[in-house]
Amino acid sequence: MTVPLTLVATLLAKTGSEAELEQTLQDLQGLSRVEADCIQYDFHRDAEQARTFHMIEQWRDESALTAHEATSHFQAALPIIERTTEKFSVTKMYRVS
């Protein structure tokens, strides 16, 4: 049985780049949600730190995430994310119970 992979990405926007990063992540969310192996793809702004965004994603498995990262929409968003982000972290996990 395949266990879905959950990913939480946390991005801190550079000062002055919040709107551009937010729009890029919103666009990426819409395109990612229609991928066949996407189970969940939610975009959040941190309640206490306005420049911080969180992506909560769930993929069928690790290979589905790899396929997502190779899509044209992810590859197009990546340079914008890199340019507008001060700090970026990704946590991958599998549900235990």
Automatic annotation (TrEMBL):
Pfam families reported in the protein's UniProt record: ABM
Domain ABM: residue ranges: 5-93
Annotated protein name in UniProt: Antibiotic biosynthesis monooxygenase
Oxidoreductase listed as a keyword: yes
UniProt-listed PROSITE patterns: ABM (PS51725)
Coiled coil segments of this chain: none
Keyword entries, A-Z: Monooxygenase, Oxidoreductase
GO MF, any single term: monooxygenase activity
Entry keyword rRNA-binding: no
InterPro entries the UniProt entry points to: ABM_dom, AI-2_Isomerase_LsrG, Dimeric_a/b-barrel
